[in-house]
Amino acid sequence: MHNLLFVLSHALVFPQQPNIYLEIVGNSNSEKDWAFFAPHETEFVANQYVAEKIVDKGGVFVVLRQHGERLITFNINNKEVKIDPNRMFTRHGRIESLKKQNPTISEQSPLITQAEQLAEKLSHFVLASLNGTKPPSTLVAMHNNTNGYTGDGKDGYGDVSIIRYQKKLASGANYLIDVTQGDHDEDDLYFLTDKNDFATTKQYGWNAVLQNPEVAFDPEEDDGSLSVYAEMKGYRYINVEAERENNGQGENHLSVQTQMVDFVFTLLEDKNK
After folding, report:
1. Is 81 helix (H, G, I), strand (E, B) or coil?
2. 238, 245, 244, 237: which is closest to 262 by C-alpha?
3. pTM to 2 decimals?
């Protein structure tokens, strides 16, 4: 039994492990040139709103599901192996994520090899659902983060914040080429690959980060994320990040993230005119 949370959605089951599935709203073969993806089940603040917008405007929204947790768990030979599903889109990213999430398993273990192969198949499964018969030019990711960031001196937690990105850029981080801080909470931001999208979000007072296209060629910056994959394959990529409540800290910034989604649709529709 697969739990579906959205009206007018359907499930697509991962053949290699049936407790992993995609909840899909809309149609990847529509004439709309965009696809939305939510890789982490714990990051769902505005997903219902996105589903409603897709029903209204077209395109497709794909949510990766298993058991309500952030990580995906593969069952291999009666053993569990975990991976971050936003690190599975390149081989290097898959291996590094498997090492990080499974520190008790030797890197040389056949389990890691099998898990990497399974993760590759899962990434292809997801991408096929996003691409349809004619791949869209734009991939939009839905994410939520925690309040502040670890080491911010304010009891923050996590690693996503416009202030942290500013510090990363100032210290010479190679995966960034620009950061703008607008009028919103530090945890509500766009992570972008298109310089025109960056200029527009900056103009309208949003927090935004512009990824360095060199990540497509620099092995040191290959983390297997969808943003890196998008850069490698020539997709326009938009990540909609907003704060969520986590273990009693922070708040779900639903109203802000819905505004951010609306703004994304203005970007998408302007480019499709």
Report:
1. strand
2. 238
3. 0.96
